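Hey team,

Filing this mostly as a record. A colleague (T.K.) asked me to run one chain through the structure pipeline before their review meeting, and I want the input and output archived in the tracker in case anyone asks later how it was produced. No errors, nothing strange. Just documentation.

Input sequence:
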Amino acid sequence: MSLSRLHAEKGPLIMGVVNVTPDSFSDGGRFLDVAAAVRHARELIAAGADVLDIGGESTRPGAQPVTLGEEIDRTVPVIQAITAEWDGPVSIDTLKPEVAEEAFKAGAGVWNDVTALGHEVWSLEVAARLGGDVILMHMQGEPRTMQSNPYYEDVVAEVESYLVDRAELAARAGVPRDRIWIDPGIGFGKTLDHNLALIRATQRLASHGFPLLMAASRKRFIAALEEREGADVSDAEHRLGASIAVHLHAVAGGAKMVRVHDVAEMRQALRVWKALSCTSLR
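Output structure:
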């Protein structure tokens, strides 16, 4: 089932994060081995995740790349274990088409790419051949240097134009339009003010016919915003309230999926939001 069909049945979707990495900004190293990652995935499913996003290479600011073989070894066994016992959609978070291919063989059905299928010239062709959903994210630069000095004339217009252009390229390559998602890339080559401008522009970004994913969970811009108020949330796990606030704002503006670390809390927040917004719950 496509993510758009799942959204039509359930309303706003929650994507739970499973980082099989030693250096993720929020939980690096906690779920590096297969057994720990699978246990965490089961917990996210029990908490109400609609989609699981499995990543084997950190894309935090300053992150170093890993080899193709290492990324496959980290992610494929986890995907195999999860899809053997759960029929919900599983996403592979990778910029490498070779990793996406192996992940799809293992049971994944979504390719979440921080380079919007731009890392390799054949990424678009691979995505079309795989036949699943794709999530196209905007990033200025690359993870090692993206936060060194991000600059835009008009961040909303530039991100919007880039995402629509990449989505149209994917459609022309053969990816079904209803399987193409876009993500403004909060925290990827953006200052605090850039991030806030993009979050405020959710409705505009969601107006182009491609479903929008918002992924702001625990990100560093929250700490930067809190620092303006004299608060210290340098520990990423202390950014839950702000993460929920951003994602509810995004859903109200038309985002169809949110990518989060704290699934149970986000599920509860969405239930209350639905109850306040609708005459009946789905």
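Quick notes for T.K.: Strands lie at 13-19, 51-55, 90-93, 110-113, 133-137, 180-183, 213-214, 257-260. The longest helix spans residues 155-173.
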